[in-house]
Amino acid sequence: MTKIAITGVEALAKVLRRPVAYREVTDAEAGWLGSLFPMVRAGAFAQTTPDLSRLLGRPATGLEDTIAAFIERVGG
Questions:
Q1: Which three-class secondary structure state does DSSP give residue 3?
Q2: DSSP per-residue codes, 23-69
Q3: I need a surface site. Which of 2, 8, 14, 20 has the fewest CB within 10 A?
Q4: pTM score > 0.70 for this model?
Q5: How does pLDDT run across 16-74, given as a tens digit for each residue?
């Protein structure tokens, strides 16, 4: 089975069933979080492992399901 990478913006738009506007920011505009961007672009966090599922004792929740649960919880 092929896994397809989906961004947070795409996942949010899919869950909300509407377009989501966003704008790209520079590393500097993102403040301290921007210091992580070069590592993200280089793929430093791209590797996945089954470790979280093992720790939880169940499959990890995907991004879309996590966003949907959050929206339901906050009344969106």
A1: coil
A2: ----TTTTGGGGGGHHHHHTTTT----SHHHHHHTSPPPPHHHHHHH
A3: 2
A4: no
A5: 889 988 888 899 999 999 999 899 889 888 888 999 999 999 999 988 898 889 888 88
